[in-house]
Each structure stands twice: as C-alpha cells, then as structure tokens.
Amino acid sequence: MIKGFHHAAISTSNLERCIKFYTEVIGCKVSYEFGWQAGTADADKVTGLENSEAKAAMLKIGASFLEVFEFSSPSAKKRLEERPVSKHGISHIALEVKDISSEYNRMKAAGMRFHSKPMPQESGFMVYGRDPDGNVVELIEYT
C-alpha cells in the first residue's frame, strides 16, 4: 500500500548554497545531514553509480521533505543552460503558499529569479521561479 509522496531529491554543485537557499528563502528546516565515502558498495548499488561519494541533507517543510545531494564522485557535468520545463523528466517542485504576492516579493528581494509575476488561474494564482541551481520552483496559492 502506497501511503503518499515522502520527498523529492535534487543534485547540486554546492550543498551549502543549496541548503542556505532552501532554509533561508524557502523556509525549510534541516532534518538531518548524511553522506558516504567512495567505495561504499551499498551506496553505489542504490544510486546506480560507480565509486560514488556524496554529502547530502534532508530538508523538511510542512509534512514534506526535499533531499539535496552534492556528489564529489563521479564528477557531475555542469549544466550549460537552464532546463526547460518542457523537457521530459521532473519539471518542477511546487510550494503551496498563503499570500503569493508577499511571498513573491520576499523571495525576489532575496535574489530568487522568477519567469513572471504571479498569474491568475482558475483556482488561485501561481508563478514559476528558479533556485540557485536553475531548478524550477513553483509557488501556488489556492483561493
């Protein structure tokens, strides 16, 4: 029996910067930090990587979690362009907010880049922005 979604995970080139953004701008709390050294066979099996090494953190907001990884092995290819939301795969994470205008202004002042101002939709308002790694973060307010 599936109980529900527990977490999403992202890979970052700078774990400290990523944690700072998601705690200070988004409002997550660090639940715990972890990692593994190269040569950890179980980690390689789980990730499908060879000789992997990473440090990571599990962040919590509300009843949801976001897991963030910084891999030191294998070396990651630097993203040369921002991934468009039309590309197959996970396109964004969404955060339900109260008072989207205030959250938009607060996050924009903190340096978050947005594609537009909050837009009306049938059930409320929404807007897409980008975290420091270029991942799309949606703010959505249901009215």
List keywords for this structure.
alpha+beta; 2,3-Dihydroxybiphenyl 1,2-Dioxygenase, domain 1; four-stranded mixed beta sheet; globular
Tell me briefly what this model is:
The protein is of the alpha+beta class. 20% of the residues lie in helices and 38% in strands.
Describe this structure in words.
The chain has 143 residues and is an alpha+beta fold. The chain has 2 domains: 7-73, 2,3-Dihydroxybiphenyl 1,2-Dioxygenase, domain 1 (Roll), CATH 3.10.180.10; 93-142, 2,3-Dihydroxybiphenyl 1,2-Dioxygenase, domain 1. It is 20% helix and 38% strand. It has helices at 15-26, 41-47, 100-109, and strands at 7-11, 29-36, 53-61, 64-73, 93-96, 113-114, 119-121, 124-130, 136-142. Strands 5, 6, 7, 8 and 9 form a 5-stranded mixed sheet that branches. Strands 1-4-3-2 form a 4-stranded mixed sheet, covered by helices on one side. A hairpin with a 5-residue loop joins β8 (124-130) and β9. The mean pLDDT is 94.
